[in-house]
Design goal:
Elements: H1 2-22, H2 33-39, E1 41-46, E2 49-50, E3 54-56, E4 62-63, H3 65-77, E5 80-85, H4 91-97, E6 102-103, H5 111-114, E7 118-119, E8 124-133, E9 148-152, H6 156-163, H7 165-170, E10 173-177, H8 180-188, E11 194-198, H9 199-208, E12 213-225, E13 228-229, H10 234-249, H11 252-261
Parallel strand pairs: 1-5, 1-6, 9-10, 9-11
Antiparallel strand pairs: 2-3, 3-4, 6-13, 7-13, 8-11, 8-12
Length: about 270
């Protein structure tokens, strides 16, 4: 009996060793510039459908304003940058778990998010606009009463709408989508009545789809974009702030802005 138990224990230990050997190494959380230098790169998490900040071109390549700026920052640090598409609904988990080092993709700075991550200084302004079809009879927030309004789940658009209690409570339904493009496509198809979306994305999308959508004068407020990192990475945040200031001072960010927006909209 003792011999049989010993054999069983040995087999169990051997199996455990195999499982451990198959498991990948734990993610190393990058929190300082020294960590970045040691890793030789920093990892950016993004929604790869958020044009023109970070999205796929016709050949499937990641392009956009934030992509170009991140590459320039990496170049000046003497390291590489890796872009990892993530589920936007799980962005905080991806950051905290160490799967990514930062969220850099038109990320709005909000008080709720400040409790979960450290932000760089803001680098772009944005508004949450209301988009309807050209022939819509919706003229403003008051006309959204009883209507279906679409937006991206766990987005700053959702926070902004819910913060406007009077308008939010008047809605017929708030329909959430994994991405903004899905919401705008459903609006085009007539399945919803309006979409609340980042102005920066909306303007870019409308140039690709002329004559279909219009933007109302009413909006759900202004906001700022920043880079989000873990709360324990405030030293790295400051290093990035320094480089962002350099990029603004020497005109590099202005050039990138003109490339993607046709004008300099950098803060």
């Amino acid at each position: 009996m003792i011999k049989r138990i010993s054999v069983l224990i040995i087999c169990m230990l051997a199996a455990a060793a195999v499982v451990a050997g198959c498991a990948g190494p734990a993610s190393k959380k990058v929190s300082t510039l020294e960590d970045v230098k040691a890793a030789g790169k920093f990892v950016v998490g993004l929604d790869d459908g958020f044009a023109p900040m970070g999205f796929r071109d016709e050949d499937g390549n990641l392009v956009g304003f934030d992509i170009d700026v991140a590459k320039e920052v990496a170049k000046r640090l003497g390291v590489d940058v890796e872009f990892v598409p993530i589920d936007w609904d799980s962005k905080e988990f991806e950051l905290k778990s160490g799967n990514i080092d930062m969220i850099w993709n038109g990320l709005t700075i909000t008080e709720k998010r400040r409790k979960q991550m450290a932000f760089t200084d803001p680098y772009l302004d944005n508004r949450q606009i209301i988009v309807v079809l050209m022939d819509s009879d919706i003229k403003g927030k008051a006309d959204l009463a009883g209507k279906k309004v679409g937006l991206q789940t766990e987005s700053s658009a959702k926070e902004a709408v819910m913060a406007d209690v009077e308008t939010y409570e008047s809605l017929g339904e708030m329909v959430e989508y994994p991405g903004n493009f899905e919401a705008l496509q459903d609006l085009k198809a007539g399945r919803i009545d309006a979409v609340v979306v980042d102005e920066i994305l909306g303007k870019y999308y409308f140039t690709k789809n002329p004559g279909i959508y219009k933007v109302l004068e009413d909006n759900f407020g202004t906001e700022e974009y920043g880079i989000g990192m873990r709360l324990d990475a405030k030293g790295l945040v400051e290093e990035f702030n320094k480089i962002l200031k350099e990029l603004k001072a020497d005109g590099t960010m202005s050039q990138i802005s003109i490339k993607w927006f046709g004008e300099d909209i950098v803060k």
